[in-house]
Known about the structure:
Strand content: 5-15%
Number of helices: 7
Distance between the termini: 29 Å
Bound molecules: zinc ion
Strand order of the largest sheet: 1-2-3-4
Order of helices and strands: HHHEEEHHEHH
Low-confidence stretches: 1-47
Largest sheet: 4 strands, mixed
Amino acid sequence: MQRTLRKPxxxxxxxxxxxxxxxxxxxxxxxxxxxxxxxxxxxxISSISSTLVTKIKNTWQFDQKLSSIIHAEEQDPLSxxxxxxxxxxxxxxxxxxxxxxxxxxxxxxxxxxxxxxGGHFGVHATYxxxxxxxxxxxxxxxxxxxxxxxHTCQINKYEIMAYPGxxxxxxxxxxx
Length: 176
Ligand SMILES: [Zn+2]
């Protein structure tokens, strides 16, 4: 991964492509290069399919707080210091804001927890992945709740606990 910047230098493209870099950084430890037909494919955030972007946008319309933030940002970009309205995308501290809509939030949680992206590694890994790109208030507890209900994560947890021998010793650095 050559790109270490969390945001691209050019602000003109911040929009969806910044998500690519962020998403790849966040996921590079676990993600497989090909993310099949899942619409949330992040770089492809241009391919986080337009359908998904549209669905996320819809969540803003039905969220009173978010739609008033958008309105204020349109009038004055400095109205909410942590928020930005960039090329039709509402972001908070660089993360795409997702309004209160259970279905779409669930879909995102599923994606970031799935075997191809999150690897079903439980709360921490899933939160790391999703919070690099997505923001909503209460995201962390949503992840915790979600993981509790994920059968695969629960099984993985017990397997990890049952086989502590799988942990690898740290390499010893030799002094030259
Ligand atoms: Zn899981």
